[in-house]
Amino acid sequence: MNLIFKTYRTATLALLASASLAAALALTPAPQAQAAQQAPTTVRIVLKGMVCAYCAHGLSQRLMRRPDLESVQVRLASRDAILKLKPDSKLSETDMRQVAADAGLQIERIEYPTATE
Fold it and tell me: Which of 4, 17, 31, 56 can pair with 76 through a Cys bridge, CB separation 3.0 to 4.6 Å?
């Protein structure tokens, strides 16, 4: 009788432990969900005064020096720049305007495209 009780007790404890582990795993976000939470934010800045490749290159170089940007794409034809911010970025609109001003440009508007655009 004692052996049956010990076996039952061991099986019950193992079941409880596996149920606790399953519950803990259910509360942990999947790796894809974690990656989505940490995805960089995209910002589009529309510029005034960018009329040549030298202007675009100057702005690109100044933006790439920023540690809070993951990538920069300055497009002369559409007179804009697409910025991908790092997840922990503290880059403000004032900072963006200052970088543009340092490059001799003005920001006409700043857009935050949604994921569906």
Answer: 56
- How deeply is 76 buried, as exposed, middle or buried, from its count of CB atoms within 10 A (0-12, 13-18, 19+)? middle
Q: What is the dihedral of CA 28, 33, 34, 40, to 10 degrees?
A: -160
Question: Which residues fall within 8 angstroms of residue 103, CB to CB, at 6 or more apart?
Answer: 55, 58, 59, 62
pLDDT per position as a tens digit, 5-47: 556 556 555 555 555 544 555 555 555 545 445 556 899 999 9
Cα(19)–Cα(98) distance, integer angstroms: 55
- Phi and psi for 41 in degrees, rounded to 5? -85, 140
C-alpha span between 105 and 98 (Å, rounded): 9
